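Fold tokens
===========
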Amino acid sequence: MDYSITHLTSAHPRYDTRIFFKESRSLAKKYRVNLVVADGLGYEKNSGINIYDVGIEGGRFSRIFKTTKRVLEKAIELDSDIYHLHDPELIPIGLKLKKLGKRVIFDAHEDLPKQVLAKHYLNSFTKRILSFIIRKGEVFALKKFDGVVGATPMIRDKFLAHSIKSVDINNFPILDELIDIEPSFNNPTICYIGLLYETRGVREIVNAIENLDVKLIIAGKFFDKAYEEEIKRLKGWEKVDFRGFATRDEVKEILKESIAGLVTLHPTPSYIEAYPVKMFEYMSAGIGVIASDFPLYRAFIEKNNCGICVDPMKSQEIEKAIEIMIKNLKETKVMGEEGKRVIKDKYNWSIEEQKLFNLYKDLIDD
């Protein structure tokens, strides 16, 4: 407990599942842990973790320049032994902390250069150039850090290929959070829980239920008012039970009501090579999974017989998968049971937690 660790984020909420509920609470078992956020909610202490708020900014550019400056000031004030950064815009802060003799880890939640390639508002040439520049800059900077945490093995391997110390810590579910849920499998109810924007496939799943006798629970937050209005004008929206942002307790209740969960993300570069957190949470709760037909997802779902893969761009395929699940509840329940079994045996946070502990022990022992 003599060592202090500070997690830094300028973009994520204070109760981000990966940052707070998994990494911060795990590390708090052994070390003094701070979390610096920028959400405007003020100081708070939760689960032994000191949460410091540097204030919220309205626009992206203000966040990148003004918020990151305040995050750096708070980081220096806390004078921790190790800093764990969670946003690409904080990489320059990491370099400054290194100059002050601090140990710094970067947590790569996604493959940023590939993420840029999926930006619909940039033309093809601009995306390729920007992605190339970001990749070069990322490698140059992170070689100076003490380690990189990749959210997937693919992200880890990308950095290892550049001789950057890296370990994969996957977003597998916390075992005791959802594993005790017992869905009833009595009603034709399915769910989508997560962020609500174009590439998450919201339009396609709402269109998919238009002609089905089913209820779709959607829990999440729209970030684009025009897109929200467009989705709510779709005919299928009449069968949507929209819950808005859901707390973790509310998520549990939604999963209890559902027979299957949807994770039909669009085939963007960052999604194709990353496991979606919600897929594992649906499995942990013991419900079936309807997922995008990406090689990574398909190999996992077919291997464990826990769901159905579909083309996420085709509402007709999603509709067919939903129809199969609601008309064959016994088989869907078996899929859910298989998913829960493999989560218990292999894909849970306790395994990833130990990898996190090992990374920090190596840093401290150096």
In short: DSSP finds 16 helices and 14 strands in the chain.
